Structures are given as C-alpha cells and as structure tokens.
Amino acid sequence: MSRELTPEEQTYAAKFAKALKSERRKRSLNQEQLGALITRSRATVARYESGKHLPPTDFASALDECLKTNELFASLLPHNDREQQDRLTKYVEIEQNHAEQLKQWQPQVVPALVQTPEYAREVIAASLPPKPTPEIERLVQGRLERQQLFSREKPIPAHFVLDEGAARRLVGGPEVMAGQWSYLREQAENPYITIQVLPHSQGAHAALMGAYTLLETRTQGPALYLETMVTGSVFTDIEHVTAARQRMDSLMARSLSPAETIRFFDKLTAESR
Q: What share of the chain is helix, strand, coil (3-state, %, to 5)?
C-alpha cells in the first residue's frame, strides 16, 4: 500500500503528471506506446499520469532519455531541489570562506550578491513549485547575509557583468526595479565592486549558454561554478576554468565601462519616473 504524499509531494506529483501527459500527447502516443518505449507497463504510465503518485528517479530518467527532454522530468522531482541546495551550499561555503576574488556573468537576473531584499523576494517567489512564505523569507535572509561579504574588514573584489535584458526586466514592477537600479548604482561606486552592463547592441557573444561564476580561492586555486535548473557544479580543472576566463574577458571588453554603466542605471531610473 502506497504511503500518503505530503502536501509538497502532492504538488510535485501533480506537476510531473501534467508534464508527462503533455509530452506524451505532443508525440501522439498512448500510454501503452509510451510504456513500451521506456520499458514500462501501461499501468505504470497511467499511475504517474494520475498525479496521485510520485515517480522514482529511474522513471524520470527513462522519460528524459527516451523523449530527449533535456532533464525536464528529473527536474520535476523533489530530490533535485535538495541536491541543488546541497551544491549551492558548497559553492556558498567557497564564496564566503575561501574566495579572494569573484567574477560573475548573469544574463537573466541581477546577481544575488547585489540584489535588494524586495528584488530577491520577487525572484525567489517566482520559482516553481511555489515556496511557502516562511521559506521565501528564510532564503531572502540567507541571500542578504551573503552580501555581507562586501562589508567585512577585508572585502573581496567582485566584478559583475550583467546583460541589459536582465537589468531592464521588471521584476516586481517599477517600484521594486527603481529601488534595484538605485542600489546597483550605489554598489557600482563601492571600490571593491565593479559592475558592467552588456548592451543588446553587442548581439551574439561567447557566453550565450548561461550564467557562471569564477572564483579565485586561497585553498583550491581557481574555481568555476555553473548552475542549471537541475543542478549546480563546481569545476577546478584548468580546461573549464580557462575557457570561462576567456569568455569573461570577452564579455568585459564588449560591455559598457563602469562609468557608462552608472549612467545607464541613472537613465533607467529617470525613465521609470
């Protein structure tokens, strides 16, 4: 007899079922045909399409492999949230306790280390599955505590390259963004923080594949952190780190200068009034 799902697990099961049914119908497959493709029975497919049962990881992996869904189904299982949080915790430990320098490229949102509380709250609240309010507030507080990196007696130098689209995205609406632009301008004048915006006019560039962070550490040497919807990983091998450095150098060279970036934030603030 199956155990009763927790409310959180019920949310995962329902979203998994919806995605499973959608992807199956896209391919004009019935439950029996899909089951045959992934070597499962029709009853098994029907069970997880009902939204009343949480599938095992091997079922999700079989779907992703067979349907070429780029880890979609793996990302819909709750254990991935825990695993991703564990990996993020490992990265944050390096960032907070071992880093001597940080460089980050962010094409989607304002970097976490220079977000206002209001902006951070909107970003976290938009995640799926939805998080309860106490969890959102806990995560916002954790993000703000990470920002104390720049108020220590010996702050580390940080260089953020932000895509224009991320800078302009109205997260939380005009009021939240006005506060965020003002805060970015303020942080850009911190001698330990450099911020550049990569304008849309630059077109295609070498880091279109997504965000990443480069760290120089005392104990582990250079490190590269990559985060996706499913997981996050820290790399220390010279090949990955060198390629990331080259991309970062290219992004910095094509972006607005720090002074031009401050004027860019001033312009966004003026336009929002």
A: 55, 15, 30
Q: Could you report the per-residue pLDDT of 13-39, keeping only the tens digit for each?
A: 999 999 999 999 999 999 999 999 999
Return d(Cα 55, Cα 197) in angstroms, integer.
Answer: 43
Q: Considering only CA atoms, which of 251, 255, 270 is closest in space to residue 212?
A: 251
Distance CA(144)–CA(95), nearest Å, equals: 14
Q: Is the pLDDT higher at 46 or at 61? A: 46
User: Under a CB-based contact definition with an 8 Å cutoff, are residues 71 and 64 in contact?
Assistant: yes
Which residues make beta-bridge pairs with 223?
A: 215
Count of residues for the chain? 273
Q: What are phi and psi of 132, to 5 degrees?
A: -65, 155
Tell me the range of 133-142, 254-263, 264-273 where mean pLDDT is highest: 254-263
Q: Tell me the chain's radius of gyration from C-alpha atoms.
A: 21
CA distances from 137 to 30, 77, 85, 92, 120 (A): 43, 23, 16, 18, 10
For residue 85, what pLDDT is reported? 56
User: Using CA atoms, how far apart are residues 268 and 186, in angstroms rounded to an integer?
Assistant: 14
**pTM confidence score:** 0.69
Strands (E), 68-192: 99-106, 158-163
Q: Are 178 and 269 in contact (CB under 8 A)?
A: yes
Residue 156 identity: I
Query: What is the β-pairing status of strands 158-163 and 99-106?
Result: parallel
**Cis-peptide, bond into residue 78, ω within 30° of zero:** no
Q: State mean pLDDT over 250-271.
A: 95
Q: How far is CA 218 from CA 94, 97, 158, 192, in A?
A: 10, 9, 15, 18
Residue with tokens 């290219």: 250
- 3-class DSSP state for residue 30? coil
Is 80 within 8 Å of 230 (Cβ atoms)?
A: yes
